[in-house]
Design goal:
The chain is of the alpha/beta class. Helix 14 links the parallel strand 12 and strand 13. The chain is globular. The C terminus is likely disordered.
Length: about 650
């Protein structure tokens, strides 16, 4: 029998008079005032949200004297994504405050997104009064129960006196160990009740003690594996970014000579200009990155979780490799791939402790000769680079090549630009073609793949840039016409915030990634993927579906600058103008080819050895690939060095 959720269990308890106040030391105030004061004491500078009845006491305490900036969004989901974008761009905990019922349920998608991508976030939701819980009161929803599978932790707060302690614990839990979202469900009883405020608060967290430092024996075992590896690869994930381990990853790559491949979330942790960086691996990764992992003899997973979009068919992933897995979350180690050396700990701390052990091994036994390995990798890089069809080479209707647009955006942007993407083809092209030179420069929904993430996350990043970097890091959002329309109302938030977010919509009038799959796997049956929002020719029942919506007019309706580009000359000029505008949001509607596809590609569930560089070209299935001083033939996992 299923156990009751916390709110269900609470509603079954007989309700008596509210517990009498037993703490009388400190400043007397309401719970709502205590929440605002707690956020200020915790150093919160920016909060996103939308008011409603069950959270009004808290909003009543927010005024011009409040020490944090409050950003009013137009939809609660956007509040969550903006908090995510803020957190990823700055490294701070993102905060949002929404009301009960539909307000709380609207933010569930953002909570699940943050949970999948390990984003530190505190979500404060209103809840009906204690006496009304379990009565199906107006706008009552069991948000603790609803979010139970997709949060790191959650609280149901019924007493005002508990608010400072709960907020202290929530921020600590969200930002330590494996970061993630924490929900604080605040009853109206707790908000209006009186309490005595004091600071700092003592946390009560028995059993919560994340391991940050690895055991010495496993470090020694890992160092020995490096000394016997002739085809090593560092497989770096988003956990390394969350740990702030960019310097340690670069130092390990230099010390061992191993190439670095990254997941989608780790783009930029090693600069693309660094020769050791092979780019992203997996479904739409580079052939060199995917090929290196498939042929390696030592795979060092650093803050990565062996996601299916990385591994393809798990049984054939990196078949000749021994595995070192470093992660702060012990639940991830061995979940998908058994590790020969499992190391639980904070990535940056573990790598700092591991490198002296590797140096000792190198001093005793020398450093393996990796030249043959790099020769094989460089051959893959040379023969199968990330490239795309030029407009003159493709059977188009005269529209732009979307990949060319992304390349131009990158070439004309500042090297400090923070790049944000929605979800779809444009997301993959951005990850492939934008030049990333630093971590926290790339924001995208990875694990959950949330369309609509882009604009609110860009707003959060822009506010974070203004707060932490004095606005010196511009923000570009690369979005699709389908993804953008899911949260386009947040143009109002961007306008009233005077946020100079630059928005590039790759408008192909279709749900591009779904259409690509329909083309490749569903016999060109384009069911429910045509949007007509940039289609100037299609007509049904004599009603023309032309520019619905008109993105330029939409931008202007929200007070933003809108531009449209059909040709390369228009595109280059629009990008130049957008980069010069710094007092309001700018949107460019790029009309791009609807049949462009993302290559390379590994079909879902297929072996990574089947990576397709272009239709009919499978580089890892075409003859032997030299690796170390052995020849590893595709499909042969018994090769030895």
């Amino acid at each position: 029998m299923a156990l009751p959720t916390p709110l269900q269990a609470f509603s079954a308890v007989p309700k008596g008079p509210t517990d009498r106040q037993t703490i009388t030391e400190g400043e007397k105030m309401t719970g709502a005032a205590a929440l605002v004061r707690s956020l200020e004491e915790l150093g919160v500078k920016d909060v996103f949200g939308l008011p409603g009845g069950a959270i009004l006491p808290v909003y009543d305490e927010i005024d011009e004297h409040t020490k944090f900036r409050f950003v009013l969004v137009r939809h609660e989901q956007a509040a969550g994504h903006a908090a995510e974008g803020y957190a990823v761009a700055t490294g701070r905990v993102g905060v949002c405050i929404v009301t009960s019922g539909p307000g709380a349920t609207n933010v569930v998608t953002a909570i699940a997104d943050a949970n999948m991508d390990s984003v530190p976030m505190v979500v404060i939701t209103g809840q009906v009064g204690v006496g009304a819980i379990g009565t199906d009161a107006f706008q009552e929803a069991d948000i603790v129960g609803i979010t139970y599978p997709v949060v790191k932790h959650s609280y149901l707060v019924t007493r005002a006196q508990d608010i400072p302690r709960v907020l202290t614990e929530a921020f600590h839990i969200a930002s330590t160990g494996r970061p993630g979202p924490v929900v604080v469900d605040l009853t109206k009883t707790a908000q209006t009740g009186e309490m005595y405020f004091s600071w700092p608060q003592r946390m009560i967290l028995p059993g919560y003690n994340p391991t940050t430092k690895a055991h010495g024996r496993v470090l020694g075992d890992a160092a020995k594996m490096f000394s016997h590896a002739y085809r090593p690869v560092l497989y770096v994930g988003g956990g390394a970014v969350r740990s702030g381990a960019e310097a340690e990853v670069a130092a390990l790559a230099k010390l061992t000579g191993a190439p670095v491949v990254t997941t989608l979330q780790a783009r930029g942790i090693v600069p693309d200009s660094d020769p050791c960086c092979l780019g992203m691996l997996g479904m739409h990764g580079t052939v060199a990155a995917t090929g290196a992992v498939q042929r390696c003899d030592l795979l060092v997973a650093i803050g990565a979780r062996f996601d299916d979009r990385v591994t393809g068919d798990l049984g054939t992933f990196a078949p000749t490799a021994r595995v070192i897995h470093i992660d702060i979350d012990p639940a991830e180690i061995g979940k998908n791939r058994v590790a020969d050396v499992p190391i639980v700990g904070d990535v940056a701390t573990v790598l700092r402790d591991l490198m002296p052990q590797i140096e000792r091994e190198q001093h005793l036994h020398g450093k393996p000769n990796l030249k043959p390995w790099w020769d094989a990798i460089d051959e893959l890089r040379r023969d199968y680079p990330i490239d795309y069809d030029r407009p003159e080479d493709q059977p188009t209707d005269g529209s732009l090549s979307p990949q060319w647009v992304v390349r131009q955006l990158s070439d004309q942007a500042s090297k400090d630009t923070i790049w944000v993407a929605g979800v779809g083809q444009h997301q993959m092209w951005a990850s492939q073609l934008v030049d990333f030179e630093s971590p926290r420069q790339w924001l995208s929904s990875g694990g959950l793949g949330t369309m609509g993430y882009g604009l609110p996350a860009a707003i959060g990043a822009a506010i974070g840039s203004a707060r932490e970097f004095h606005g010196t890091k511009p923000v570009w959002l690369i979005d699709g016409d389908g993804s953008f329309q899911m949260t386009s109302e947040e143009l109002a938030t961007a306008f009233f915030g005077r946020l100079p977010v630059k928005i590039a919509i790759l408008n192909n009038s279709v749900y591009g990634m779904v259409r690509q799959w329909q083309t490749l796997f569903y016999g060109h049956h384009y069911s429910a993927t045509t949007l007509h929002d940039g289609d100037a020719t299609d007509a049904t029942d004599e009603m023309e579906f032309t520019d619905v919506p008109d993105f330029v007019k939409l931008a202007e309706a929200y007070g933003c600058v809108g531009m449209r580009a059909f040709t390369e000359e228009e595109a280059i000029e629009a990008i130049r103008k957008a980069n010069e505008i710094n007092d309001r949001p700018v949107l460019i509607d790029f009309r791009v080819w609807k049949d462009a596809m993302v290559w390379p590609m590994v079909a879902a569930g297929a072996p990574n050895d089947d990576v397709t560089f272009r239709p009919g070209i499978k580089p890892l299935r075409q003859g032997p690939v030299a690796a170390g001083d052995a020849v590893v033939t595709p499909g042969n996992s018994s090769a030895s060095v």
